[in-house]
Amino acid sequence: MLDRKFILENMALMKANIANRGMAVDVERFAALEQQRRDMQKQLETMRAEANALAKNNALSVDERRTRGGELKKMEAELSARIAPLEADIESIYVAIPNLIYAGSPLGGEDASKDIARGKQPLPKFDFKPADHITLMENLQMLDLVAGAKVAGSGFYYFTNMGALLELALTRFALDHVMKSGFKPVIPPDLARDSLMQGAGFVPRGNESNTYHLEDSDLNLTATSEITLVGRYADEVVDLTKGPLKVAGISHCFRSERAHGSATRGIYRVHQFTKTEMVVVCLPEQAEALHLEMRRLEQEIFDALEIPYRVLEIATGDLGAAAFRKFDLEAWMPMRGGKGDWGEITSTSNCTDFQARRLNIKYRDNSGKLQFAYTLNGTALSVCRAMIALVENHQQADGSVRIPLVLQPYLSGMTHIRKE
Questions:
Q1: Is 66 helix (H, G, I), strand (E, B) or coil?
Q2: CATH classification of 110-417, choosing from 1.10.3720.10, 3.30.300.130, 3.30.930.10, 3.30.565.10?
Q3: In CATH, what class is 4-94?
Q4: Residue 114 and residue 213: Cα distance in Å, rounded?
Q5: Nearest to residue 254, comparing CAs of 285, 219, 299, 278?
Q6: Active-site residue (options: 347, 349, 382, 400)
Q7: Which of 186-200, 253-267, 298-312, 406-420 has the lowest mean pLDDT?
Q8: Label partner for 112 (CA 20 to 30 A): which of 85, 101, 356, 398?
């Protein structure tokens, strides 16, 4: 969240920021209610100051002080009762006000995102009719969608045989790669409290939620380990004197929403998947360089996997509420939609101090004063989509799948996945 005073003093900027994001937040009502709350708070403080002074005022009799004290106490209770619902109304708007936007972000919706770089691997040219990932993986006994639907419903699946081993290989390869750049491995909980979900910028309840929640509790299955990795530092003063905190979380991710259509068939958009997520907590002046480092790591991972991709600078209307700036990597998936298309495989966001304010994550500056830290997040590798791109791009005429050189040590030196 943004500083309340900053919002009130920069209303034109706030309105433009919300409009550029394509959002509808009544920031004018927030300003009016917040000013009303501040005025009432001043009245309350005046009453309390008078009550404190009254106790020391020997010019008045005991009865006079008691009578006036009772009046002040009643007035204070009435005013406090009026402030409470006002604060609730303010908070409901406040939490919806998004972060500021990087000046270089393209204006517009999803289609306005800008293609700014390409990976090292060219698009594949097949001298045979290629198959989609479902056909390939089912023929190679790597995937069982039917059993997944039987056990848990549409949008679930089993990875079997080489499918299971490939998930482990991809996960460990991505983790090993980011660890070389100082990211410490973490396996976090798969559940998070409402307050941490909200603090990280995710909606834990209601029609807009994309998460599963546990009834009769304040717990939710996490849509990404970003929530639990950032939430780990909630209400803490972190030590950044030795450098930024850099962690890589390996977790299951759970998302209740599932799109339909040829572009999302198979395992492109599922309810449960495994992801290796990078999270950084740092000083404000370190954030931009670290954001570019995380993007570089994502690119190195998919260059090493020999998967063609493009890098997008995400447009203002497609940013999440917490993101100040965001990059996506989209891999070329030769059979996506039946004809081939780009599909998102990673994203990395600079959230500035937006999450830290909501979660109360602070550090001490050189003068010892407490300041809000900056947080960043980025997908090192999301297994399902990486697997789609891998099997479709590396498929062979005989129906086998070539294993990229960097993964072969994780798969006992195997060079191809073949039908048993």
A1: helix
A2: 3.30.930.10
A3: mainly alpha
A4: 35
A5: 219
A6: 347
A7: 253-267
A8: 356
